[in-house]
Amino acid sequence: MTQERTFAIIKPNAFTDGNAGKILARIYAEGFTVVGIKKLYMSKVEAEGFYAVHKERPFFGELTEFMASGPCIVMVLEAECAIKKWRDLMGATNPADAAEGTLRKEFGASLGENATHGSDAPETAAFEIGYFFSGLDLLM
């Protein structure tokens, strides 16, 4: 198997609830390498650009307001099958449906405030990584 990269966010609710360090510890414990990491405050416009794929969905406004509501941590993670591995660690989008031991089950507050984000495909990961990181930002 070859190494793969994926994009991840520790969302504002997990950050402000003091769980960012716990989530980062789990990332390392699960064998991911963090090749890029930034703490940032996403503006509403930046959140709208990032989530543009959801623009026509009814939750778009609520989602972008939430993502602009506080600090978050954006990351590029590397591992074998990183996209699937990260999505498995996060758990189902709705914390109520997430399996025990997943990040969203443990740290998610609701469907909208589910603690983490992750790319769902290689093409999505490429867009999302490029949205926040230049090549110079990433450890090789």
User: What is the annotated CATH architecture?
Assistant: 2-Layer Sandwich
Mean pLDDT: 96
Assembly classification: single chain
Q: Uncertain segments of ≥5 residues (pLDDT<50)?
A: none
Order of helices and strands: EHHEHHEHHEH
The CATH superfamily is identified as Nucleoside diphosphate kinase-like domain
Number of strands: 4
> How many domains?
1
Strand content: 15-25%
Structural class: alpha+beta
Instruction: Write the CATH fold name.
Output: Alpha-Beta Plaits
What's the Cα radius of gyration?
14 Å
The main sheet orders its strands as: 2-3-1-4
> What is the terminal-to-terminal distance?
18 Å
Note the overall shape.
globular
The main pleated sheet reads as: 4 strands, antiparallel
- Helix content percent band: 25-40%
Q: Can you tell me about this structure?
A:
With 140 residues, this protein is α+β, with helices and mostly antiparallel strands. The protein has a single domain (3-43, 71-137), classed as 2-Layer Sandwich (Alpha-Beta Plaits), CATH 3.30.70. The chain is built from 7 helices and 4 strands; from the N terminus they run E-H-H-E-H-H-E-H-H-E-H. It has helices spanning 12-16, 20-29, 44-50, 60-67, 82-90, 103-107, 122-132; strands spanning 3-10, 33-40, 72-80, 116-118. The longest helix is centred in the last third of the chain and has 11 residues, at 122-132. The model has no long low-confidence stretch (mean pLDDT 96).
